[in-house]
Design goal:
It comes from Sphingomonas anseongensis. Pfam families: PilZ (PF07238). This is PilZ domain-containing protein. It is a single chain. By secondary structure, the protein is mostly beta strands. The chain has one domain: Beta Barrel (Thrombin, subunit H), CATH 2.40.10.220. 14% of the residues lie in helices and 44% in strands. It has one helix and six strands; from the N terminus they run ββββββα. A six-stranded antiparallel β-barrel has the order 1-2-3-6-5-4.
Length: 81
Amino acid sequence: MVKLRRRGHDNFGAKAFDFSREGCKLEFRERPQLDETVWVKFDQLELLEATVCWVDDMCVGVEFARPLHQAVFEMLAARFR
């Protein structure tokens, strides 16, 4: 689970899947629009700016504005295992 923030909206929870250094797949009820900027919050990390790059039913793919550092990615990947 991650926290997601949309411009002008409160934070809400989302499930993260297919996580990579460049982005991830998110599933939730309040779906953002294609090309919308959102902010993703993983525990113990700062907000990550991301852009919605695809939308499919209740899932979206987001691309992080900056790829995660390899060490940060490995720490998060270990948590998801």
